[in-house]
Design goal:
Layout: H1 2-18, E1 25-27, E2 34-36, E3 41-44, E4 60-63, H2 65-70, H3 75-86, H4 88-100, H5 107-128
Length: 130
C-alpha cells in the first residue's frame, strides 16, 4: 500500500506535467477548460479499479475535478477526445486490456515504477521551468 500510494501521487504529477504546455497549463480531456498542472487531476478513462490500466499512459489524461469527480469521469466526452488523439485501435486496446488482463504488482514493482516516474517528473519540471 505504501509504494502504490506513492506511485499514484507521482504518476498523477507525471501525467499532468506531460500534457501541460511550457507554462504548466493543461486542458481537461473532457471539457477542454485550461488549468495549471497543480490544479487539475489525473483522470482515468478506464477506472483505477482496473489494475492493468491504472498506470497506463494511454488511459490517463489531465481532467478537472468537476468532470472527474462530479460527472464520474465524463466518460463519453473523455472517450471521444481520447479517440481523436490516439485513434480507435489504441482506445479499444486500452478497454480490452482493462477488461481482460489481471495485473498483480509487487512492492518492488511499485517502488521501481515510482522511481522511474519521479525522475520523469523532475525532468519535465526542469524542462518547463516549473
Amino acid at each position: 500500500p505504501y509504494w502504490e500510494k506513492k506511485l499514484d501521487e507521482v504518476f498523477s504529477q507525471y501525467i499532468r506535467l506531460k500534457f501541460s504546455d511550457s507554462n504548466g497549463v493543461c486542458r481537461c480531456i473532457s471539457c477542454g477548460k485550461p488549468f495549471f498542472w497543480t490544479e487539475i487531476q489525473n483522470g482515468h478513462y478506464m477506472s483505477r479499479v482496473y489494475r492493468s490500466t491504472r498506470f497506463d499512459e494511454n488511459n490517463c489524461r489531465p481532467q478537472c475535478m468537476p468532470c472527474n469527480v462530479f460527472l464520474h469521469g465524463n466518460i463519453s466526452k473523455y472517450r471521444k477526445a481520447l479517440v481523436e488523439e490516439l485513434g480507435d485501435e489504441i482506445v479499444d486496446m486500452v478497454e480490452t486490456k482493462a477488461w481482460s488482463v489481471t495485473a498483480k504488482y509487487t512492492a518492488y514493482d511499485y517502488e521501481s515504477m515510482y522511481h522511474q516516474y519521479k525522475a520523469e517528473v523532475e525532468k519535465l519540471k526542469k524542462g518547463k521551468g516549473l
